[in-house]
Amino acid sequence: MITRFTARLLAGLLSCTSLIYAAELPQPSAGQPAMGTPEWIRTSVIYEINVRQYSASGKFAAVTADLPRLKDLGVNTLWLMPIHPIGELNRKGPLGSYYAVKDYLGVSDEFGTEQEFKQLVDAAHAQGFRVILDWVGNHTAWDNPLATQHPDYFVHDAKGAFTPPTGFDWTDVIQLDFKNPAVLDYQAKAMAHWVKAFGVDGFRCDFATGVPTVFWNELFARLRAVRSDLFLLAESELPQHQLRAFNASYGFEMMQTINAVAQGRAGVSHIDNTLARSKVELPTGGALIYYTSNHDENSWQGTEFERLGRGTAPFAVLAFALDGIPLIYNGQEIGLDRRLEFFERDPITWSAGHPLTAFYRTLCQLKRTHPALRTGAAMHRVASTKNESVYALLREAENQRVFVVLNLTARDTSADLFDPALAGKWKDVFTGETCELSAVANFNLRAWAYRILTHVP
Predict the structure, then answer these.
(1) For residues 8-46, b (16+ Cβ closer than 10 Å) or e, as one string?
(2) Cα–Cα distances in Å, from 59 out to 81, 180, 375?
(3) Which helix (H) or strand (E) holds 443?
(4) Alpha-carbon distance 389 to 441, whole Å?
(5) Rounded Cα–Cα distance for residues 392 and 382 (Å)
(6) Helices 355-369 and 312-321: crossing angle, nearest 10°?
(7) N or C: lower Cβ tally within 10 Å for the chain?
């Protein structure tokens, strides 16, 4: 629901006299061990599903029926946006926001029944998918029964009234009070319910920045006692979140960097600056997700075609090539070129045979199967005579290598690249062609061109 909390924004929030909770400042955690990631997520491609817009029916059953297509695409972790009943009091738009949760223990009849949701999870597991749910832990809908049954779970203003989260236009929700230990007890039991009763494999936690880290630490200690290999993703870039709570966080800054480079507002080497900041701030073994679109980017900032133009494909390659966890938003694989409505029905029109389908299928296959693209495998930039235009990466693991070279500008270019590891025989994953490279290799690249080469022993 947010873009990255920059230091400037944090400073501004801290200066607001109406702020109820002081926003938590980033605590650089380099050198400290991260929580780490479950083994299964290291080869995962996350696919975000907006159930409301996924099909003409907007139902769980339509997602279940489409699992074979997703299996063929090659994604293997399904993230479902919030599935819970949506508040009616002060709701936005005709159908309201998924993030205004009326009942943490229920499913919205807009999407189907509990049994149909269970059928979706079971069918996904049977076909080799993992399933993670969106969890909204910072706030609830105004008409969530907790507001009347346990008003002490919520923050109140000077007049004793409930209040929306400060600093946003989220008038359809009210702020939970994390100083009350009962809120922790409730959320721990509610999240465990979805793990125990439905077998979900993890949670993507909305607006994780708004919840104190100490709350997440204790909450997830309890949750991991229920199941140790859960994947917990923070919509946050606070480094301290990955010390004891989350397995991975959002690459907000890289998304902003991608937009800036594509639009000519920043040079290609700004990617290195962003990666360096992550290395300085994140604990050792920390992980980020990388993407060119998601529900927030699509609905509020624009489609990847609006933001990235002809850079759409090469930046998608970059998101898969970086050491992290790649994300695809539903519809990207068929070139969805419109902003999906957020508070009303606006179903995707699916079509077969789009060239981006084969493109994403190739990227997914490589991420799932090649050791060098596993999360945590070694990565470094390859030196180039055109660093202002060309971004080249080498990933290595288990004596296997993947080499990615991208022209991230609207200009044709020719560049010499140097790295001893380039010497040898390589295969282009998109064309199947093989080539021999020496330690110094020349590449002639058209505007926005990209190549992925795998080393042939």
Answers:
(1) eebeeeeeeeeeebebbebeebeebebbbbbeebbbbbb
(2) 13, 36, 33
(3) strand 440-445
(4) 16
(5) 5
(6) 10
(7) C
Region 379-408 average pLDDT: 98
Share of the chain above pLDDT 90, in %: 95
Q: Strand ranges (DSSP E) for 271-423?
A: 288-290, 325-329, 378-381, 383-384, 390-397, 400-407, 413-418
Residue type, 46: I
Residue with tokens 């989220």: 170
Residue 298's CB is within 10 A of a number of other CB atoms, namely: 25
Distance of alpha carbon 255 from alpha carbon 292, whole angstroms: 7
Tell me what the mean pLDDT of segment 1-16 comes to: 36
Domains of the chain: 27-376 (3.20.20.80), 381-456 (2.60.40.1180)
Query: Which residue matches tokens 């949701």?
Result: 117
pLDDT band at 23 (very low <50, low <70, confident <90, very high): confident
pTM: 0.95
Instruction: Tell me if 315 sits within 8 A of 292, measured CB to CB.
Output: yes
pLDDT tens-digit series, residues 65-80: 999 999 999 999 999 9
The pair of structure tokens assigned to 276 is: 């360096």
User: Is the model's pLDDT at 118 over the cut of 50?
Assistant: yes
Q: Give the separation between CA 241 and CA 367, rounded to whole angstroms.
A: 26
